[in-house]
């Protein structure tokens, strides 16, 4: 940079330039921090949504309302991490090559620097994307109108088809829209884009809910099929509790036992939340046995963890 008049070469920059550079750097850092905070909040919201549905599905299998157990936000987030990150990783791995192809093949067409042959080829691809999106949207509509024969067999595929169809429609429109269109045509385009974004987000949330529900049910079935892996419980109480039958044994130990005189055994610990114990009989089966919800106050537990 040439030296200003009256300023020797190599002299430090004026204070005004230093201040301006500092302000630009600070503004850039604030933008980065805002982007990171927004993405973190978005991911946390999705994980919370996933964890809520997953835990509810797990405890619904045992006939217990998960909301009554007082799970915290951290609990919902923790129970979503292992199951939710796998599809997120797969989605990210699929998006990377797609973005690379878009940048190298499609962007030159949008900028008007591609060959006529590539332009014609991209337009055929765009029409194919729109056609596939319309067909997928019709399939989703059919699934909504006829849940028994179309919607239920599709299962989690239906919201995924919705999201994919909307993405294909949007991408096809981006490739075919005229970038030099008049200003009066911009409003319908923005409204169309907004509608497509809403539909895509709806499909993704719908698919996330169904996937979380499936994961929760699968984990509950695993617990029910492997009750022997849950801690064995011997419960001592001050007074008799409404725990009987289904192989559960009880005994009054008498006054000499002290404060906790009633003993119950042949139980398994399903979960413990706050001051509540969820206990299952050893012989529990879906639809064939109760789940005992016992206040932890005024009780004592002897737990035996099975060998791994």
Please tell me about this protein's structure:
This protein has 308 residues and is α+β, with helices and mostly antiparallel strands. The protein has 2 domains: 24-224, no CATH class; 228-304, no CATH class. 59% of the residues lie in helices and 12% in strands. The protein is built from 6 helices and 6 strands, in the order H-H-H-H-H-H-E-E-E-E-E-E. Strands 1, 2, 3, 4, 5 and 6 form a 6-stranded antiparallel sheet that branches. The longest helix is centred in the N-terminal third of the chain and has 47 residues, at 15-61. The N and C termini lie far apart (72 Å). The chain crosses the membrane at residues 28-49, 61-78, 84-101, 154-174, 194-212. Keywords: Membrane, Transmembrane, Transmembrane helix.
Shape, per Cα inertia axes? elongated
What ranges have pLDDT less than 50 throughout 5 or more consecutive residues?
A: none
Number of strands: 6
Rg (C-alpha, Å): 31 Å
Series of secondary-structure elements, N-terminal to C-terminal: HHHHHHEEEEEE
> How large is the count of helical segments?
6
> Span between N and C termini?
72 Å
Helix share bin: 55-70%
Transmembrane segments: 28-49, 61-78, 84-101, 154-174, 194-212
Keywords: Membrane, Transmembrane, Transmembrane helix
List the helices and strands and how they pair.
Blueprint: H1 15-61, H2 73-110, H3 116-145, H4 147-154, H5 157-176, H6 186-225, E1 232-237, E2 249-252, E3 262-273, E4 276-281, E5 292-295, E6 299-304
Antiparallel strand pairs: 1-3, 1-6, 2-3, 3-4, 4-5
Helix pairs in contact: 1-2, 1-6, 3-4, 3-5, 5-6
């Amino acid at each position: 940079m040439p030296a200003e008049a009256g300023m020797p070469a190599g002299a430090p920059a004026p204070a005004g330039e230093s201040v301006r550079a500092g302000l630009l750097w600070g503004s850039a850092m604030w933008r980065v921090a805002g982007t990171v905070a927004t993405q973190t909040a978005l991911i946390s919201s999705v994980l919370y949504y996933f964890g809520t549905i997953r835990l509810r599905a797990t405890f619904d299998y045992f006939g217990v309302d998960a909301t009554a157990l007082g799970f915290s936000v951290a609990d919902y987030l923790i129970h979503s991490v292992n199951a939710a990150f796998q599809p997120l990783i797969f989605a990210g791995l699929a998006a990377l090559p797609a973005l690379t192809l878009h940048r190298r093949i499609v962007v030159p067409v949008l900028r008007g620097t591609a060959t006529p042959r590539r332009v014609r080829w991209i337009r055929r691809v765009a029409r194919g994307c729109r056609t596939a999106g319309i067909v997928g949207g019709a399939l989703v509509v059919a699934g909504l109108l006829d849940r028994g024969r179309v919607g239920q067999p599709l299962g989690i595929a239906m919201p995924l088809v919705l999201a994919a169809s909307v993405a294909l429609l949007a991408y096809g429109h981006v490739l075919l829209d005229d970038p030099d269109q008049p200003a009066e045509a911009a409003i319908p385009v923005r409204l169309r884009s907004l509608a497509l974004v809403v539909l895509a987000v709806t499909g993704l949330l719908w698919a996330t809910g169904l996937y979380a529900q499936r994961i929760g049910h699968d984990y509950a079935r695993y617990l029910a099929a492997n009750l022997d892996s849950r801690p064995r419980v011997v419960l001592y109480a001050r007074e008799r509790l409404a725990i009987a039958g289904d192989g559960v044994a009880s005994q009054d130990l008498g006054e000499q036992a002290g404060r906790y005189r009633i003993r119950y055994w042949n139980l398994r610990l399903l979960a413990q939340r706050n001051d509540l114990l969820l206990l299952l009989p050893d012989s529990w089966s879906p639809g064939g046995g109760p789940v005992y919800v016992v206040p932890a106050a005024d009780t004592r537990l002897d737990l035996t963890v099975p060998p791994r």
